[in-house]
Each structure stands twice: as C-alpha cells, then as structure tokens.
Amino acid sequence: xxxxxxxxxxxxxxxxxxxxxxxxxxxxxxxxxxxxxxxxxxxxxxxxxxxxxxxxxxxxxxxxxxxxxxxxxxxxxxxxxxxxxxxxxxxxxxxxxxxxxxxxxxxxxxxxxxxxxxxxxxxxxxxxxxxxxxxxxxxxxxxxxxxxxxxxxxxxxxxxxxxxxxxxxxxxxxxxxxxxxxxxxxxxxxxxxxxxxxxxxxxxxxxxxxxxxxxxxxxxxxxxxxxxxxxxxxxxxxxxxxxxxxxxxxxxxxxxxxxxxxxxxxxxxxxxxxxxxxxxxxxxxxxxxxxxxxxxxxxxxxxxxxxxxxxxxxxxxxxxxxxxxxxxxxxxxxxxxxxxxxxxxxxxxxxxxxxxxxxxxxxxxxxxxxxxxxxxxxxxxxx
Length: 383
What we know:
A hairpin with a 2-residue loop joins strand 22 (about 345) and strand 23. This protein is about 25% helix and about 35% strand. Mean pLDDT is about 80; it is low at about 1-75. By secondary structure, the chain is of the alpha+beta class.
C-alpha cells in the first residue's frame, strides 16, 4: 500500500450518476467516486482501489485528497511474482495413498522452499483429489461424545477430528469442514500458520435471498507476514442446486483471493477474518453483486461494485468489468433464461454493459468465445 496526493479541480470532467456515484476524468485517468462512510475511487487505468475521506466537494473550487492505493487485481502481485508450475505439477501428479496428514504434507513439500508454494501445493492437491461428499452433506452429525469434564470432552473432540482427518486423506472425500480442517492440518505439519474459519456463504443459485444461512468453512494462511484467504472446497468444483451431484472443476481463483472479492460470498462468524478495513455487515452481505472470480479463462481484474444509474436525457444503467483476457461475446439473461436486452461498449480498458433505466431484473451475465459456444457465467447483478 502507498499514498499519493491528488488535486481535483472543479473544471475537471465530472459526471454525476446519482447521489453516491460520480464519474471524474482528469489527465486521461478515470475515477469512480462513491459517497459513503469513506469515499472510494476506482482508478480504472491503474487497476487500483483508492480510499480516502472527503464529504463535500460540490461547492469547492478544488480539494486535496490523500489516496491510499490498494491492489485489487486478485492478488496479482503475489501470483505474478510466483510461478506455481512446480507446485501445481506436484499436486497433480501425486497419486500415492497416504494414511495421515503428516505423511502427505511432507511428501508434497519435500522439494518446495517458499511458504506460498507450500500453501499452493496443499490447495491444489485438495482441489484435484478430494471430491465433495454430497451424501455426507445431507447426513452430517455432531460427534456423540460423553465426558465427565470439559477438559475430557475437549481431548476426545480433538481425537475425533484427528481421526476424521485421516479418513479424509484416505477416502479423498469430504465436505467443506473436511477440506478446510485438512488444509490447516497440512500447514501445521510444515510450520505454516493457517486458520480454520467458519461462517456462512451465499447460495450460488439464489444469491439475493434475504437470509443466508448456508454454513461453510474455509481458510486463511499467513505468507510473508500477511494473511490471505482461500477456499479449497470451491476450488475443487461445484454441486447442483440440491447438492446431489458434484462436478469436478479445479480452479485457482479461490486461492489467495483478495478480501474485497472474497467477501461477496463468504461471511465469517468473526468479522476480523474478512480482512477488510471496513467489514461488510450481515445486512449488506446479500446485497452485493456476485462475480465469478473462480474462472481461469476470463480473469476479472476489477468490476462494478453495484449497478450505476446515469442521469440526464440519455439515462441508463451500467455495469463494467476489466479483464486480463476479456470474452469476445457476452449474453445476459434472467435466472429463468429469458434474454435481457443490453448494448456493449469498450472504453479505457473496460467492458461496459448498458441497460435500460427501467430494467429491474436479477440478471446473470455470461461470456465466451462466440455466441455458438458454451458460455459460462461471469457475474450476477440486481438491476
């Protein structure tokens, strides 16, 4: 993170979307300003998130702000500095059977030195080898343990979880709790600091429902003194809406995901594990858009935090994205599959989708190589 001072003059190009969002163009750089407890700029030419506090600027001739730049390019600074080819190859070619987390951890990391490579090989091994256990999801039971004292109960509970870890390693099946507990156990064996995190996740098939009570578990891992988030369960694939069928689809998008993106669909019980300066409230959790940052083919760098409503004679709604590699074709539909009219334009490195001001549907945005090819979903918004 670093700071920069910037003077915005009144005669800069200002475009008011609404009371919260202002489009500013100065020196060929475009910013979006959000008015809330702290004001947020997104600098679309530098792919940075800029935070500062300033409440009243309409009547000022100019104002001076201090901008705090935070990289929002999905941990690009870590990924770009590391070639995971070796770690990924080890994870994908380790087919031996193991009896416990220790033997597995030592085998996977015996030729790896850095903490980030060790975290990566554990994530990728889990994503490739452990299948989601749909039957266990529907028949989960709390451990039935009897004890005369709290200490005895805790000791028995620890032994129970150790036994469960061994089962996960041998059977290569489990639910989110098993993926996450095993990731932490593997890290523990090689001295890598990790946390087992519990909370709720948004329903992939019903992201805008009022109550989100899908219990879920994931991890945080400390690399070079900083905590990062990951979800090996989601990195392994996905289930159908009734959690009856699991489809393997290994993706790296849930490894060291930036907190702002991770918070779209992960709400930890302890808000400190959002790793955000301003944690998202439970009330606002389900109001956010859902962006498919798990896609490896069309990686999203930045995206609209909400739908923009422009003002004026040509008022309309906008949603924009920046990609490392943008899809050539887009389509938009409702959950029921009904097409939603839109137009597309590209400006300053962004793909902008434009909708009618009167549109009020919940939409799914798809992207792909062509209209004839299969298009996977990119994002879900509420117009």
